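Worked example 2:
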Amino acid sequence: MKMGQQLYDEIHSSNEYEIVSKIENPKVYDYIENIKQTILANGSFRYKDKFEWKITVLNDDNTINAFCAPGGYIFIYTGILKYLDNEAELAGVLAHEMGHAERRHGTRQMTKTYGIKMLLDFIFRGENSQYFKQVIGGLLSLRYSRAYEREADECSVNYLCNTSYQSDGAAGFFEKIMKEDGARSEELLSTHPDPAERINNFHSLKEELNCRGAQNFAECYRAIKKLKIR
């Protein structure tokens, strides 16, 4: 949780990131907040009341990404909001990222990479740590193992299974990537390995769990995408 807080503070104080204002864009934040609350209410979360689950929207249309730092600090780029086609896809992506935090994938990955001694120095000394920039950089460029990605995909379907959403909504993100041609598609595929396998796993798990949700709320999502974010 301390590690996620440090990253949150660094992003919000850095000139490298343009934070979308909650005050000036309440509809966008309320919309994502409602999806997040639906996920938390229906998923099996050990850290539901312990983690922050705090949302930050980053204004960057060229970055098609979202991530959830240790402790539940959620970051969503405007690029992925504009890239997705419906609310079920966003819910699926959000549930996947929350699954990474809930299963402590980031913490475990960072411990393997940097060792407990370096992380403790970072946590207790903050910006005064000699490892501050190194650990922050590691958190921002974190790449999960296939096993962690598979587990987060399973979390996504599980968390949405008892909702009205299509619980395999995240599959739509990968299906869209695979249909695209060009440099952007290649870049997305390089950061999201084995999309065909993952698409199949999303659909299979939905059937296995007998998830009945069928809504994607595409019309509501289109209205949000039309909003001018400032």
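The mean pLDDT is 93. Residues 175 and 209 are 21 Å apart (CA to CA).
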